[in-house]
């Protein structure tokens, strides 16, 4: 009986705390891979407010350096999040592509950063 009460109290606390959070379930940032300490920013692009979605982002490193880590970050919170689909290539290779889906036009900016081996 005590365990049931404790479980109900924990569920109430978790539910109550998520209601106070500014982030609901919409995604505002994505991270792909892991960034080794020596990797350098090799590509950056910003989809500005007003950009039509879906938008395709692709990058091929001219020096054949492997892309190991990718970040995509919205510049502010929005109840209208976005999703990301990998369209070609993969991490650990010199080329990769993504499609960003969401509300159109964007009401916020999204910055995409790709990090490559030195």
Question: What would the principal axes of the Cα set say about the shape?
Answer: elongated
Number of strands: 7
State Rg: 19 Å
Which class best fits the helix and strand makeup? alpha+beta
Strand order, biggest sheet? 1-4-7-2
List low-confidence stretches.
3-26
Largest sheet data: 4 strands, antiparallel
Mean pLDDT: 82
Strand content: 35-45%
Order of helices and strands: HEEEEEEE
Distance between the termini: 59 Å
Helical segment tally?
A: 1
Helix content: 10-25%
Q: What oligomeric state do the depicted chains represent?
A: single chain
Can you tell me about this structure?
With 118 residues, this protein is α+β, with helices and mostly antiparallel strands. It contains one helix and seven strands, in the order H-E-E-E-E-E-E-E. It has one helix spanning 2-20; strands spanning 29-33, 40-47, 55-60, 67-74, 83-89, 95-101, 110-116. The protein has a four-stranded antiparallel beta sheet with strand order 1-4-7-2, with no helix packed on it. A three-stranded antiparallel beta sheet has the order 3-6-5, with no helix packed on it. The termini are far apart. Residues 3-26 have low confidence and may be disordered.
Q: What attributes does this structure have?
A:
118 residues, alpha+beta, 4-stranded antiparallel sheet, 3-stranded antiparallel sheet, 1 helix, 16% helix, disordered N terminus
């Amino acid at each position: 009986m005590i365990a049931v009460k404790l479980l109900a109290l924990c569920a109430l606390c978790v539910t109550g705390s998520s209601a106070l959070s500014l982030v609901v379930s919409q995604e505002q940032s994505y991270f792909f891979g892991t960034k080794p300490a020596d990797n350098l920013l090799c590509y950056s692009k910003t989809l500005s407010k007003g950009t039509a979605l879906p938008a395709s982002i692709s990058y091929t490193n001219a020096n054949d350096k492997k892309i190991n880590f990718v970040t995509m970050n919205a510049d502010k919170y929005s109840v209208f999040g976005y999703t990301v689909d990998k369209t070609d290539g993969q991490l650990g290779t010199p080329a990769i592509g993504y499609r960003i889906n969401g509300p159109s036009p964007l009401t916020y900016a999204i910055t995409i950063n790709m990090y490559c081996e030195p």
